[in-house]
User: Fold YgiT-type zinc finger protein from Streptomyces evansiae.
Amino acid sequence: MTSAEGILEATGDTNGRLYRAACPACRARFDLSAAALRLAIGGSRKTTFYSFTCPECGESVRKPAGERIVELLTEGGVSTLRLHSAL
Ligand SMILES: [Zn+2]
Assistant:
C-alpha cells in the first residue's frame, strides 16, 4: 500500500461505508461518512482532490486523490464536483 496519495482508506460495507482519514494539523484519526467528504475532479492529477473538515480541530483538509481514491469515494456516494478548466 502506498501512502503517497494520502491516508484515506475505506472501511465498512457498501451500505455504510466509512473512510478513515487523519488530520495533518492535530494528527487525530477518525472515520468519516460519505456525507462528510467532498471530491473534486479536475482535468489533471493536480486538480483532483478530496476534502473534509477535521471533526477534532476544525481544520479544512485537502488532499490529492489518485484514481483508486476517486473510485472508492464515488462508489461510496461522496458528492463529486467536476471541475472544468475553462481558462
Ligand atoms: Zn484536526
About this structure: Residues 67-75 form the longest helix (9 residues). Residues 23, 25-26, 28, 54, 56-57, 59 surround zinc ion (CB under 6 Å). The beta strands are 9-11, 18-22, 29-33, 38-41, 49-53, 60-64, 79-82.
